[in-house]
Here is the input.
Amino acid sequence: MSNKIKCGLVQASNDIIPPLNAADSKMIKQIQKNMLDKHVKFAEEAGKQGVQILCFQELFNGPYFCAEQNPAWYDMAEEIPNGPTIKKMQELAAKHKMVMVIPIYEKEQTGVYYNTAAVIDADGSYLGKYRKSHIPQVNPGFWEKFYFRPGNLGYPVFETKYAKVGVYICYDRHFPEGARVLGLNGAEIVFNPSATVAGLSEYLWKLEQPAHAAANGYFIGAINRVGNESPWNIGEFYGSSYFCNPRGQIIAQATRDKEELLVTELDLEEIAQVRNTWQFYRDRRPETYEELVAL
Here is the structure.
């Protein structure tokens, strides 16, 4: 028996380069429009290819502005689900009968912002959101605590038309605890939209997430943007988005330096096959793990 789901990942570059420490609301809105237009085209192409679940990259409708500490970027934040970006994507999801994972900068209220991904079902309905739990503050170039509060919604799994979907965002991938909770909550496919550059953590890109997939017996879709973003020049966003299966094997991968829609089929029957072989959930010893949260 086969239960195949066609899934897609979009990796893209930013089109407009703002002056350092000189971003203003007008420029930010233009960046958002350009990136939204670009991703609408990707979504339309995904629809033509029959993609059933599509995920964009972290903070998809702008640059990785966390490379500087500038309150002007607060203007990028939108309400979820009532902001214009999510409303537009709900229209596209319904048009193509496609589940969509949409990572944007979320405004809960003035001064309270999150790095968030909204999940939209295939009929265009809003299912909920995941807020990035682990927030880095790393010099140089990753000043995320200046922009985001830590997520406060736990590790939800969304029952979509096609599969049970979980989300982990970028830096979250360095923490196996949340990846485990997503599995315990029933995730069949976990998407990790990211903005990560070559250097210190690149060797972990193909190590950590396949390990999460194997340890938890689910599929992972890992997404990374591409290109260099001046004026910050914190490094090359190296793309290399991929899908891996519940055995931790990478089964489809995008290029390193080009914009791309990566599409592949995931057979959800593999989850049962793997879990019935490796009985990690049966053999867990949660009663012995108190130290994980006590220290």
